[in-house]
Design goal:
Length: about 325
């Protein structure tokens, strides 16, 4: 089987953080349902908690539900923000300097105003040719609802743009069919009323963020790895990144390469295969996004002497 790539490291990190968010939030809701019904904590649970009176049990559970949903949205937003910052910094994906600066917020607009999350995503999407008004609108809702949750801001910047409201409202059938019967118009009404997101709104926002990240991830991979030749070039940069990041365990990246390149060709092949797997490049991809690496990639690289291999991966 050929070596292929399905996800970048930033997207894998995002999925590890919020990939099971819906299940975890629903687990909390199941527990709160028991609290609302009068359940008490078990004696072996090491927390300080007083069982509410029957008259207040539902109120206490509802307050905790609002807190859990709000926290989930804030947590997911931070994960999405980290993804946006990280993916443009991946050298092998070859993002332009302008996109890197805007996506990472290392520059501001004229007048010192920071770029919004929707503007940062839009810049990335434009470079990848996947720009979508609905995606921009979705991210604007996600970001501004998160800001409402975290900052409780009462100013004009918290509202959605007219274009975003229209894009979301006109796509009500799409949201209903693809996001567990989400009523996007009701969600917009709740957001405008400064309400905290309910469970379906919270889980839908999180799922939308993951799907947006996936589209960015796949487009970024396709742009640089759509042919075996292009993927080999990208893979060599990735391998070089691996050894540069390994300098914490070695005095220099070159020392890390020297250790990996000790021994015979068979050992080098095994080391290189291990590195590829750590980078997400393996034979076990169910739905690969990239092209396949050339079949002779590993033996060809392993056959190089250390100087030539280090030069290939940009480690000097």
């Amino acid at each position: 089987m050929p070596y292929t790539l399905t996800r970048t490291r930033p997207f894998r990190n995002l999925q590890s953080r919020i990939g099971s968010a819906t299940y975890r939030l629903n687990t909390i809701l199941v527990g709160l349902q028991q609290v609302a019904g009068g359940a008490d904590k078990t004696e072996d649970l090491p927390v300080s908690w007083s069982k509410p009176s029957p008259a207040k049990a539902k109120q206490v559970a509802d307050q905790a539900r609002i807190f859990a949903c709000s926290a989930a949205v804030a947590f997911a937003y931070d994960g999405f923000d980290s993804f946006i910052r990280a993916i443009v910094r991946e050298d092998w994906l070859s993002f332009s300097q302008s996109t890197i600066e805007i996506a990472t917020k290392s520059v501001t607009k004229k007048g010192g105003e920071a770029y919004s999350m929707s503007e940062r995503l839009e810049k990335i999407s434009q470079e990848l040719n996947i720009e979508s008004p609905l995606d921009t609108a979705t991210v604007e809702l996600f970001a501004k609802w998160r800001n409402l949750v975290v900052h409780d801001r009462d100013d004009s910047s918290r509202g959605l743009s007219i274009a975003s409201e229209e894009a979301l409202s006109s796509s009500s059938d799409y949201f209903y069919k693809n996001y567990s019967h989400l009523d996007i118009n009701l969600a917009l009404k709740n957001f405008s009323a400064r309400k905290m997101p309910v469970p379906k709104e919270a889980t839908s926002l999180i799922a939308l963020a993951q799907n947006l990240a996936r589209r960015v991830d796949e487009a970024a991979i396709n742009r640089v790895a759509s042919t075996p030749t292009d993927f080999e070039k990208a893979a060599l940069v990735l391998v070089g990144q691996h050894y540069k990041l390994a300098k914490g365990r070695h005095p220099t990246p070159a020392a890390a390469v020297a250790e990996a390149w000790q021994g015979d060709v068979v050992r080098r092949e095994k080391n290189l295969e291990r590195v590829l797997v750590e980078l997400g490049i393996s034979k076990e991809q169910k739905k690969p996004v990239s092209a396949s690496l050339p079949e002779d990639f590993i033996p060809r690289m392993a056959g190089l002497d250390i100087e030539d291999f280090a030069k290939k991966i940009g480690v000097h």
